[in-house]
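Batch manifest, entry 17 of 40.
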Amino acid sequence: MTSATQDTGKQAFESFSQGLATQQWDAFLDMLTDDFSFWFPAGPFQGSNIGKAKAREFCQYVAACFPDGLSITLDGVTSNETTVVFELRSEGKFRGEIYKNRVAVFFDVRGDKICSYREYFGSDGKSN
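Output type: structure tokens
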């Protein structure tokens, strides 16, 4: 594990969490490489997605699904030379319905940017 990798990952996660809470995504999007890719497990962005423009579309989709924001409780962080993983609980209202989930978010780091993101979740959306 390198301190720089973990520092970059944590900075990106703070911007990501702020985006979830406030729908202000610019700080997070500014941390992405031009060839950024992400993998999401469900919905219209299920599977692999490539490019910052696609990431912006994803953030707009999240904002539409959670117009009042989504709160995050961080349960753990682990990292190696290239990847930082965040275990968290999320809570909010998904299109007006109570939403709770457990999530693992992976940020792959290149230099001082995030080049890849993967998210995995698995609760029933009502418990955490």
